[in-house]
């Protein structure tokens, strides 16, 4: 998974709850949970619209706070979201993308430190989610969506609130997206001066919210061909089983792009080509450690290589004291 499951940078957190979602639909934050579903559906790349949900400010004392220093913090929400997509409509999982992860994390910090709540940054020309994605390196995008959340103290609480909003839920379950980024920032000194409501630069004030979440969704092309990610075990970051499920994106809009595929663990020795299928069960090599699965996809005369990683805690192999187990349950602390 993303950059060998690197640890998220430590951030001092405190604050209240707020949620926002952008998936080509718009909604504003109020003092209670709200959503707005009157905007057009997600159809064209240029059509960006948004949804937002806000939970009233709460006393910071006694909050259960997810620890952002956990290396699995953002990945936990991605894994939960992918499980939900599979359970609801048997949708394919989304892959964590480095550029979307950067854009989402940077914007979560801007929401918290810039004292505003909305899908456009009033201090940077009211930029849009697509502007921030491109600035982070997510180019040749075909569709962009964003969820924002604030005030919710755990990934579970934030995701559950978004799922209960029809607009946010529709974006989470959109079959158009293939990649995702998650950002989270906790601002201990958040105050009731959060600019919100109305068009950017916003006409109202609310807060404090303290917890700020961003989900940034996307799909893109490279030289006119869709970028087709592969995902191990629904984008989990660890497993105790050598046998894993690999999902291979190969269709967009009902069209099948991939004809043949083959697999490798070292990007050098490859299996024989086989007809494309969206799922493949593979057995990882033994021994605990970070495992990478490479997939080469034959798209006409073009070969596209994709990969994903997962940490294997091999219960059948002797343990290495230098390799600690990786888990994808977020650390929760009490304040």
Furnish the topology, listing elements before pairings.
Elements lengths: L16 E6 L27 E4 L10 E3 L6 H17 L5 E2 L1 H17 L14 H7 L5 E11 L3 H10 L1 H7 L6 E8 L7 E3 L7 E3 L4 E12 L2 E2 L3 E3 L5 E2 L3 E6 L2 E2 L2 E2 L3 E5 L9 E2 L3 E5 L5 E11 L2 E11 L19 E3 L1
Parallel strand pairs: 4-6, 12-20
Antiparallel strand pairs: 1-2, 1-5, 3-21, 5-9, 6-9, 7-8, 9-10, 11-13, 13-18, 14-15, 16-17, 16-19, 19-20
Helix pairs in contact: 2-3
Summed up:
With 335 residues, the chain is of the alpha+beta class. Helix content is 17%, strand content 32%.
Model description:
With 335 residues, this protein is of the alpha+beta class. 17% of the residues lie in helices and 32% in strands. It is built from five helices and 21 strands. The chain has helices at residues 73-89, 98-114, 129-135, 155-164, 166-172; strands at 17-22, 50-53, 64-66, 95-96, 141-151, 179-186, 194-196, 204-206, 211-222, 225-226, 230-232, 238-239, 243-248, 251-252, 255-256, 260-264, 274-275, 279-283, 289-299, 302-312, 332-334. Strands 1, 2, 4, 5, 6, 9 and 10 form a seven-stranded mixed β-sheet that branches. The longest helix has 17 residues, at 73-89. The two termini are 31 Å apart. Residues 3-16, 23-47, 56-71 and 320-335 have low confidence and may be disordered.
Low-confidence stretches: 3-16, 23-47, 56-71, 320-335
**Radius of gyration of CA atoms, rounded to a whole number:** 20 Å
Main beta sheet:
7 strands, mixed
Q: What class would the helix/strand composition place it in?
A: alpha+beta
In whole angstroms, the N-to-C terminal distance is 31 Å
**What's the rounded overall pLDDT mean?**
80
Shape: globular
Work out the helix count.
5
Strand runs, count: 21
| H/E element order | EEEHEHHEHHEEEEEEEEEEEEEEEE
- What proportion of the residues is helical, as a percent range? 10-25%
Query: What portion of residues belong to β-strands?
Result: 25-35%
């Amino acid at each position: 998974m993303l950059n060998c499951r690197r640890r998220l940078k430590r951030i001092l957190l405190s604050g209240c709850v707020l949620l926002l979602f952008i998936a080509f639909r718009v909604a504003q934050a109020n003092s209670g949970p709200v959503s707005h579903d009157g905007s057009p559906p997600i159809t064209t790349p240029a059509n960006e619209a948004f949804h937002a949900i806000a939970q009233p400010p709460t006393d910071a004392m006694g909050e259960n706070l997810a620890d952002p220093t956990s290396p699995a913090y953002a990945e936990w929400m991605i894994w939960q979201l992918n499980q939900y997509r599979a359970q609801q409509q048997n949708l394919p999982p989304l892959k964590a993308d480095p550029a979307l992860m950067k854009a989402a994390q940077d914007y979560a910090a801007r929401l918290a430190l810039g004292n505003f709540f909305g899908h456009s940054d009033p201090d940077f020309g009211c930029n849009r989610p697509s502007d921030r994605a491109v600035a982070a390196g997510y180019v040749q995008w075909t569709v962009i969506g964003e969820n924002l959340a604030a005030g919710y103290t755990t990934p579970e609480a934030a995701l559950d609130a978004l799922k209960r909003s029809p607009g946010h839920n529709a974006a989470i379950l959109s079959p158009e997206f293939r990649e995702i980024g998650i950002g989270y920032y906790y601002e201990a000194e958040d105050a009731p001066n959060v600019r919100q409501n109305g068009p950017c630069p916003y006409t109202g004030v609310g807060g404090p919210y303290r917890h700020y979440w961003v989900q940034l969704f996307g799909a893109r092309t490279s030289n006119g061909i869709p970028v087709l990610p592969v995902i191990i075990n629904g984008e989990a970051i660890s497993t105790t089983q050598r046998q894993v499920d690999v999902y291979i994106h190969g269709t967009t809009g009902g069209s099948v792009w991939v004809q043949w595929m083959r697999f490798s663990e070292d990007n050098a020795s490859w299996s024989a080509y086989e007809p494309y299928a969206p799922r493949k069960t593979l057995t990882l090599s033994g021994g605990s450690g970070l495992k990478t699965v490479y997939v080469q996809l034959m798209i006409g005369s073009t070969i596209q290589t994709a990969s994903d990683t997962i940490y294997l805690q091999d219960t059948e192999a002797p343990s290495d004291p230098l390799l600690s187990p990786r888990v994808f349950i977020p650390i929760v602390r009490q304040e």
